[in-house]
Specification:
heterotrimer; A mainly alpha (about 300); B mainly alpha (about 475); C mainly alpha (about 210); B: about 475 residues; mainly alpha; C: about 210 residues; 7 helices
């Protein structure tokens, strides 16, 4: 019971902090003081207090977009195990639901963007769908590989059964998986080198361009949903990359939270030292990630 | 003694590198070649026993190839002095060194019994020949050099993989992994058949591309066409025979293993027939007479492969043909080099009436053509006849029939190029060149022509015995 | 130690894929050098220590890791080669082909009758995958220098297989093979230089004067 409460609390409260840490890391690299760690929370509160403006040309789809997106992501957060504890909701085969919850949220984001009728948003939607189309196989290959290792189709079992022993025995394929998952983490969350979350040039944006028309609480939901998605995929990554379990509930949770913050710092470092890729190179990197995870699968299957 | 065969040319190469004078330097070639020929003669008469460890042994197969190479090189070396006198505009340092290094490596190929060392030596011949093909320093020759280097290097690399497979098959058979021919043949029956089969395929492809067996021959017309005549002679008579010796070594192992022989023989016959077919198609209406010679070389490696693949009586013919083809190609390439120098062109629309302009070179080219197409009284007739007759004796009527058909087509195709070129009237306006037939450019090929005539009319006793010994090593008991 | 050797072989195969995916010439030269160095380390992991082994390790690392990259870099500099690789086929296509080829290598290696002590090792699939990748680079890249790199990758693949037999190969043969490779690359470097002078480009698709009319 304690675990479920902590699970929900961490999943609900931690995500914006990750954005804050990433921002702070980037500021430190740039030699600035940067916004406070809690700035994303302030932003969210401010947005939720505002009123909404909806374009007259839009339909209910546009309003449903942020809600469905956030709901799907929240459900995904319930499926993924955090801090070496089983997830609140888990059943055999939930890894497929997990993957397609993201698909559902992406579908609503893009269809809401198309609903506005803006050409820029349509372009962003096309890019988003193209890239996620390339990124999806990677996630699946990675999940299949892990499922094969743990001989289970339940996300909780799959992710908590990664142990240091497995790392020693199949280090190469685990390394490949971690590499592929990290690339997917960056791509799915629209981080550099795939997309620049801070850009304001419509022509180069992917994700940001799709949500230009949202405002107020709807935009807050989108921002919060994005942070949550980063958190969920980050949790999957941390589970695979850091297979330590002390046995003590609170120690495990502490380790998990520290690991998540460390991950945020890593993302910040990557964003600071890398430039955004040319758009034509993005599919190349995504296909590369797919090949990495497929290769890991071959190594495990043989 | 065996080591001297390797070291003497290397010493010559060093001397050639030291000599600064472009006119004096080529003289190293005939001197080294004479020493080499004398060493060869004494080794043929009185071969030393296998070296301790079994790495070096000049067996009858090696002897045949060594004889051919040494003789051919000696002739080319004397010719080179005369040829390079006409090519004083460019430094011949690299050419002389390359020739001598290649001679050393070819010698190594003939005397070693270790397949790994044989591979190394063969790769050395590939690399050392590359700068020689580029002797003319123009766009066409660089293209030929590049294709030659890439295709032969890749081919030879595949052969290395084949060798590793071979060694691994001994490992799987729980023996000490080795690449020495003797132990390999002793244990051949126990070798893992799967690995042996893979090894045979890779070695055949690898050495086959080096030898120029179709369909792996694509570098040959380019390289032979652009290389100077004497380099072409050594490629067609020296390198081809070294690669063929390597294939014969593989054949020996397949023979000892029993089961693998059938496949290997059939593959050889098939590739041989394909080579002859390719040559027959591309030789017709070939306007470039050096490329025509290259296709003739493709044809003759095909004949060698068929001879080896048929086995039994054809083996004697194959070994004899190895010698005949090497020497006849020498006559053809050297005289074609003269014609090329004199006309400054190698296409038949310019080169006409060679007999009028260069009676000696034209006559030699004509005689070489008659010899290479297997007409009596020259020796290629005897070897080709031996192969084809044994094909019919063995009941391989299809192989024998195709063989004769291709020979006939090739004869016609070659005649269509050679006859108008040699006979006919020299064109009225023609670029004057400084080339005239001299003793040193005509004498060596003439000598070689004499040798093949002699071999055709009256093959010496010791040679027949040697060839029989060689054939015996490949499975025929005389 | 064998698991560590396996991890290194995975790295070798990854480098194959990196080489197929990269567009930078200099980067692929470095990658092939890295592959050579890994090949140098590997024999020490699977065979007991001996003088022979130390010699091979030093020789391979020196030749494949230092001298050959130096020679190729030299050729790149002298011929003023632009940094792009210029493939006939797109990067993504060759990368996918490379992945397919790697998977096939695993399937093929399963079927080979290996000695029992080599059954679980990755040497054979790594060797075949690297060999085929080399072929792929050799055939799909336009530049002469990329073709040399493809040849080197192929050679590396053959070496991987040879590592299983290090003890069977006499030093003289190993040294000779390495020396031949070195001289071969040296000569190819010179030829590239001449190609770039003759054609003002190292694009091998321009080498098409010689053919049957």
């Amino acid at each position: 019971m304690t675990d479920i409460i902590i699970h929900c609390a961490v999943a609900l409260l931690l995500p914006p902090l990750l954005l804050g840490v990433i921002g702070k890391t980037k500021a430190a690299f740039a030699g600035r003081v940067g916004a406070p760690y809690l700035q994303p929370y302030y932003d969210l509160i401010k947005l939720f207090q505002k009123g909404s403006v909806f374009s007259e040309t839009t339909t209910w789809v546009f309003r449903a977009g942020p809600v469905v997106t956030l709901a799907a992501t929240l459900f995904a957060a319930l499926l993924v195990p955090l801090g070496r504890h089983g997830a609140p909701v888990s059943f055999s085969g939930d890894m497929i639901l997990f993957a397609y919850l993201f698909g559902l949220s992406r579908f609503f984001t893009t269809i809401a963007a198309l609903d506005t009728g803006s050409s820029f948003e349509g372009m962003g939607a096309a890019r988003e769908v193209t890239f996620s189309c390339l990124a999806e196989p990677t996630l699946f290959f990675a999940l299949i590989t892990l499922a094969r290792m743990s001989k289970s189709l339940t996300l909780s079992t799959i992710l908590t059964s990664v142990t240091p022993a497995i790392w020693l025995a199949a280090g190469a394929s685990m390394l490949l998986l971690v590499g592929a998952l990290f690339i997917i983490l960056l791509a799915e969350n629209c981080r550099i080198p795939f997309d620049d979350p801070n850009t304001h040039l419509e022509l180069t944006m992917i994700h940001e361009v799709m949500v230009l028309d949202h405002s107020g609480p709807a935009f807050g939901m989108i921002l919060y949903g994005a942070a949550l998605k980063l958190f969920v995929l980050g949790a999957v990554f941390v589970n695979v990359a850091l297979p330590v379990a002390t046995g003590n509930t609170f120690a495990d949770w502490a380790i998990f939270i520290i690991a998540m913050l460390g991950l945020a710092v890593t993302i910040g470092v990557v964003e600071s030292v890398m430039a955004r890729l040319r758009l034509v190179r993005v599919p190349q990197l995504l296909v590369g990630a797919t090949i990495l995870s497929a290769f890991a699968m071959i190594l495990v299957l043989r | 003694m065996l080591i001297a065969l390797v070291l003497a040319p290397l010493l010559g190469a060093i001397i050639a590198w030291i000599i600064p004078d472009n006119r004096l330097r080529p003289l190293v070639l005939p001197v080294t070649a004479t020493v080499h020929l004398m060493l060869t003669a004494s080794l043929l008469g009185n071969a030393p026993p296998p070296s301790p460890g079994g790495w070096f042994w000049l067996d009858p197969l090696g002897k045949v190839v060594l004889l051919c190479i040494s003789l051919l090189f000696a002739v080319c070396a004397f010719y080179a002095v005369g040829y390079l006198a006409f090519r004083q505009e460019r430094s011949n340092r690299v050419l002389c060194m390359g020739l001598l290094v290649c001679l050393s490596a070819m010698g190594t190929v003939t005397i070693t019994q270790h397949l790994g060392l044989l591979w190394v030596a063969l790769e050395t011949t590939t690399v050392s020949m590359a700068p020689l093909i580029y002797f003319n320093h123009n766009a066409r020759s660089i293209e030929a050099t590049w294709k030659y280097l890439m295709i032969c290097s890749v081919g030879i690399a595949l052969a290395l993989l084949g060798l590793l497979f071979l060694a691994y098959s001994t490992y799987v058979a729980q023996r000490d992994a080795t690449l020495l021919l003797g132990p390999l043949m002793e244990s051949a029956r126990d070798l893992n058949p799967g690995w042996l089969h893979a090894a045979a395929i890779f070695l055949l492809v690898g050495y086959g591309s080096k030898m120029g067996l179709a369909p792996l021959h694509s570098w040959k017309p380019d390289a032979y066409g652009e290389a100077p005549g004497l380099v072409g002679a050594l490629l067609a008579g020296g390198l081809v025979n070294c690669a063929f010796l390597s294939i014969m070594r593989v054949y020996q192992i397949c023979l000892a293993s029993g089961g693998e022989l059938y496949f290997f023989q059939n593959a050889l016959v098939a590739m041989g027939l394909i080579s002859m077919a390719f040559a027959a198609v591309f030789m017709a209406r070939q306007a470039d007479f050096k490329r025509m010679l290259a296709y003739s070389s493709v044809e003759h490696v095909g004949i060698l492969a068929i001879g080896l693949g048929l086995g039994k009586g054809a083996l004697f013919g194959a070994l004899f043909h190895l010698l005949n083809n090497g020497l006849t190609k020498g006559v053809l390439f050297l005289s074609s080099g003269n014609i090329h120098r004199s006309y400054n062109s190698k296409t038949t629309d310019v080169v006409k009436g060679v007999l009028t302009r260069l009676p000696w070179s034209g006559g030699l080219f004509m005689a070489g053509f008659i010899a290479i197409t297997g007409s009596p009284p020259f020796s290629p007739f005897i070897s080709e006849f031996t192969i084809v007759s044994s094909a019919f004796i063995e009941g391989r009527h299809l192989v024998g029939g195709l063989f004769l058909l291709f020979l006939a087509i090739i004869f016609i195709g070659m005649a269509l190029t050679v006859l108008p070129m040699v006979m006919g009237e020299p064109p009225a306006e023609i670029e004057p060149t400084n080339y005239r037939d001299r003793l040193l450019t005509v004498g060596p090929p003439l000598f070689m022509l004499g040798v093949i005539l002699l071999l055709g009319v009256w093959p010496p006793e010791f040679l027949v015995a040697l060839l029989k010994d060689g054939a015996a090593m490949l499975g025929v008991r005389s | 130690m064998n698991t560590f050797a396996d991890q290194l072989l995975v790295l070798v195969m990854l480098i194959n894929l990196v080489m197929l995916g990269t567009s930078r010439l200099i980067f692929s030269i470095r990658a092939v050098a890295a592959q050579g160095v890994i090949l140098g380390i590997l024999p020490g992991l699977i065979h007991p220590f001996s003088g022979h082994l130390a010699g091979i390790t030093a020789g391979i690392i020196l030749a494949k890791g230092v001298i050959i990259p130096y020679l190729i870099n030299d050729a790149v500099r002298k011929a003023h080669i632009r940094r792009e690789v210029e493939p006939y086929l797109g990067y993504v296509t060759t990368l996918l082909l490379g992945a397919v080829v790697t998977a096939l290598a695993f399937v093929f290696a399963e079927k080979l009758p290996l000695a029992p002590e080599h059954k679980d090792l990755l040497f054979v699939p790594a060797s075949i995958a690297t060999l085929l990748t080399g072929f792929l680079i050799l055939t799909t890249r336009r530049k002469a220098i990329s073709q040399i790199i493809g040849y080197l990758v192929m050679e590396n693949g053959i070496f991987v297989f040879g590592l299983l037999l290090t003890e069977a190969m006499p030093v003289m043969v190993e040294a000779g093979a390495l020396l031949d490779l070195l001289v071969g690359i040296f000569v190819m470097g010179i030829v590239i230089n001449h190609i770039s002078r003759e054609f003002s480009s190292v694009d091998t698709s321009r080498l098409r004067t010689l053919k049957e009319e």
